[in-house]
Amino acid sequence: MDNILEINGIHTYIGQFHILEGVSVIARRNAITVMLGRNGAGKTTTLKSILGLTPPREGTVIYNGKEIQGRRAYDIANLGIGYVPEHRAIFRNLSVMENLKIAERKKGDFESKSEFIFGLFPDLKRLFRLPGNHLSGGQQQMLAVARAMVADNKLLLIDEPSEGLAPILIEQMMEAIRILSTTTTVLLVEQNFVMASKLAEYYYILDDGCTVREGKMADLVEDKELIHQFLGAALQKGGQA
Amino acid sequence: MRLGFFRRNATMLVVLGLIAVLGVIGWTTMGQQPFVRTTLSGLTIGALYFMVASGLTLIFGLMDVLNFAHGTMFMLGAYLGWQFYTNPTFLFGLFPLIFALLAGLVTSPILRSTFMHLNVSEKAQKTIQTAVALAGIALIVLAVRGLDILGLAETAMVATMSMGNPLAEASAQEPLAVFWFRPVLMFLAGLLLAAAAARPGDRTQVVYAGDKRQAWIISGSLAVLTVTATLFRESAPNAVLLWNGNLRFFAALAVGALCGAGLSAAVEVSLIRPLYIRPLYQVIVTLGLAYVLRETIQVLWDPLAYQMTRPPMFSQPGKAENILAWFSGQNLTVDVLGVTFPSYRLFIIVLGVLMVIALSLLMNYSRLGMIIRAGVQDRTMVEALGINVRKVFTIVFMLGAGLAALGGIGAAPFIPVQPNMGDAFQLQAFIVVVIGGMGSYSGAAIGALLLGLARAFGDYLALKFSLSPAIAEASTVIIMAIVLLVRPAGLFGKKE
Ligand SMILES: Nc1ncnc2c1ncn2[C@@H]1O[C@H](COP(=O)(O)OP(=O)(O)OP(=O)(O)O)[C@@H](O)[C@H]1O
Ligand SMILES: [Mg+2]
Q1: In this model, does residue B157 exceed pLDDT 80?
Q2: Is B170 a domain residue?
Q3: What is the per-residue pLDDT for B201?
């Protein structure tokens, strides 16, 4: 099996709103795949649908060859899927240490990973005992990524890791994700096109709740017209970084 | 770092400082004796408030459920604990049935995979589900038909009425030869009900091997419990009544708390859980449940007020000169700083403090506590990390109800045991929760302390200036209003 994850034509509703109207995405093992698209295209909802936080009503989500749609979110996560949500969702009243420890799935997970994690994000070591709400936005983002690495995850869903980060931190985050991707598969959502194009091997473009284009990142970088058509604003944003 | 500690606990320090300042003012103006007496009364009430409010605040903070049945758990804890203490026949008569039902319920995951693989059309699934559920209920009716529950409760009433001798004639129970079929029917009913909940034929419900092994262990131990409870049903009550009264009292504390916890686990799983998508209904369900349980209690024990006798260690005649002397004398009252105070109420204060400590240890140093604190803020993220939040909900619901029930049985020896005894505590606990901040257990502790003291000093002032005692009751609401003006989210409120 080359594909750790296959999403086939999922439809997701939030309340009575039909948000996803046929999204299909494949994450190839040990590669970085990025989902692109305008604001409100449905990227975040796709990640939530994979995890079962907003379960899809139609279509299938296949992880390691098994259908997982319809299962409870905790159950899906326990299959080895890590999640770095939009806006970080750090536990503000828990210390940095607790934010990492809570992600353990079995005792000792954190101890065995701590060296690797602190290697990627040395800052966290210094902040270890501080409560989450004392961290800066960038530090919180690192903590959110680190939290997803504590358990033995085979697939990481990372939603806009560059959001609100200074350029130098974006570099650090990119480096971290690159190192991560040598051992885990990464499905990324990223508005920063420069970052996305440097990191990812495959891309999917979502628009209005549908997958509209897919292919190799290398080809997309060449295709200025396509970029302009679907990612107009995103490109500008990326251009500044 | 040291400065950080002060900054982080600023609210706590300010409130405690305020209480201390008021305390000094009170001490100097009131004189030592009235001050100490009033403070101790306040601490007693505050300890009980805390036991009710801490569960309420955690349940609301984590699950967004306003649990109007929380005061009922306080009342139930009092009744069941008092029953165990004075005449355990009632409880021991019911245990086999409850265990049998539970055993049936948890055995179903083992059989579930079979049910699920039946080939049934989607439409028929619903019909079968209803039919199976009805059959289960019918079996329960059959199982309890003719069982003299009322009679069992009545013997307990006789026991308390004949003051001085808590050892009642243990009422005659059905002989085993007649009784045995009841647990069997209950077990079958449990199987059917659980099968109905799973909807036979619905293949989308996946069953995992891990769950299965655990279910075997649990259902096996429940089956053993059922058989044991059935066999010892008749002899156990007498044996318990022959225990030393203090031992029986502490056992009653545990029984009251455990029964409250167990009952609300059942409530959470069967009534609250299906309604997480309809939060308003949850509130209504808890309200309805409170009425149903109260009426049930009234039918079983009549709407009378009972007094539970104090355990021997708090009832020897005379006054202990100090706490140490009480340990040897076990007197009814103790001299505290010149004030004669009932030793049992000191015990309640100690119990309250122990619970504050236990809860803060649990919340700060255990994984469960960490998950609860995280869940109060963002339970979706907790779930996304692979933690079964629903299970945590059930545990918190049990924990909260257990604490409230413990408060109830703890209060039983000095407030009348009657069907509405939990109402006032529930109301005050809601105020405590609002003052402390929803979801904050340390807020609940401070709030309970504040309200308890306010009540006691309010009563004192009302008596002194011959005002209406309504002043004391109003004082808690006034405190709430002030706190809300200064801090709309409560003193330690974090949830937004
Ligand atoms: N809770 C909700 N209720 C109603 N509509 C929602 C809700 N959450 C998201 N939506 C809608 O679903 C659509 C897709 O949202 P989603 O967050 O998936 O977009 P996105 O691609 O991640 O956008 P962004 O780049 O801004 O993060 C949007 O139109 C949004 O308004
Ligand atoms: Mg998004």
Answers
A1: no
A2: yes
A3: 60
| Alpha-carbon dihedral B128, B129, B131, B136, rounded to 10 degrees | 140
- Looking up tokens 């209406």, which residue turns up? B468
If one counts the domains in chain B, the total is 1
Chain B residues near residue A51 by CB distance under 8 angstroms:
384
More confident residue, B361 or A223: B361
Average pLDDT, chain A: 84
Asked if B381 has any chain A CB less than 8 Å from its own CB, the reply is: yes
What does the CA dihedral B98, B101, B103, B109 come to, rounded to 10 degrees?
-140
Which tokens go with A162?
A: 């560059």
Contact A147 B378 (CB under 8 A): no
Q: CA A71 to CA A76: how far, in whole Å?
A: 7
% pLDDT > 70, chain A: 95
- Report the SS3 class of residue A146: helix
Judge if the beta carbon of residue A234 lies within 6 A of ligand 1.
Answer: no
Q: Which one has a higher pLDDT value, B163 or B288?
A: B288
**Closest residue, chain B, to A144 (C-alpha):** B381
Q: Which of A19, A159, A188 to mutate to test ligand 1, by most ligand atoms within 8 A of the CB atom?
A: A19
Q: Would residue B330 count as lying in a domain?
A: no
What is the overall mean pLDDT for chain B?
Answer: 82
Contact (CB, 8 A) for B399 and B52: no
The residues, any chain, with a CB within 8 Å of residue A239's CB and separated by 6 or more, are: A193, A194
Residue in chain B nearest A99 by alpha carbon: B374
Residue-by-residue DSSP string for B355-417: HHHHHHHHHHHSHHHHHHHHHHH-HHHHHHTT--HHHHHHHHHHHHHHHHHHHHHHHTTTS-B
Cβ contacts of B378 on chain A, cutoff 8 Å: 89, 91
A9 CA to centre of ligand 1 in angstroms? 18
Ligand 1 centroid distance, CA of B71 (Å): 41
Q: CB–CB of A103/A148 below 8 Å? A: yes
What residues make up the domain containing B192? 32-312+340-486
Cα B436 from Cα B445, distance rounded (Å): 8
Residue B22 lies in a domain: no
What residue of B is the nearest CA neighbor of A97? B370
SS3 A196: helix
Domain boundaries, chain A: 3-238
d(CA A143, CA A118): 10
Name B328's Cβ contacts closer than 8 Å, sequence gap at least 6. none
d(CA A64, CA B386): 18
pLDDT tens digits for range B327-370: 777 777 888 888 888 888 889 999 999 999 998 899 889 999 99
B210 confidence band (pLDDT: 50, 70, 90): low
The structure tokens listed for B389 are: 């939040």
Length of chain B: 496
Give the pLDDT band (50/70/90) at residue B150.
Answer: low
Q: Give Rg (Cα) of chain B.
A: 25
| HSE-up of residue B463 (Cα within 13 Å, Cβ side) | 8
- Whether residues B378 and A78 touch (CB distance < 8 A) is answered with no
- Kindly report the pTM of this predicted structure: 0.85
User: What is the distance in A from the centroid of ligand 2 to the CA of A147?
Assistant: 19
Of all protein residues, the one whose alpha carbon is nearest to atom 3 of ligand 1 is: A14
Number of neighbouring beta carbons within 10 Å of residue B483 = 22
pLDDT band with cut points at 50, 70 and 90 for residue B52: very high
Task: Please name the residues in contact with B219: beta carbons below 8 A apart, sequence gap of 6 or more.
Answer: B103, B106, B107, B110
Structure confidence at residue A238 (pLDDT): 45
- Domain A3-238 fold is Rossmann fold (3.40.50)
Residue with tokens 């006691």: B456
Angstrom CA distances, B269 to A46, A197, B86, B113, B259, stand at 31, 49, 31, 21, 15
Cβ neighbors of A5 (< 8 A, separation 6 or more) are A25, A26, A27, A50, A61, A62, A63, A155, A185, A187
Q: Which residue has the tokens 């293949």?
A: B203
**Residue B16 within any structural domain of the chain:** no
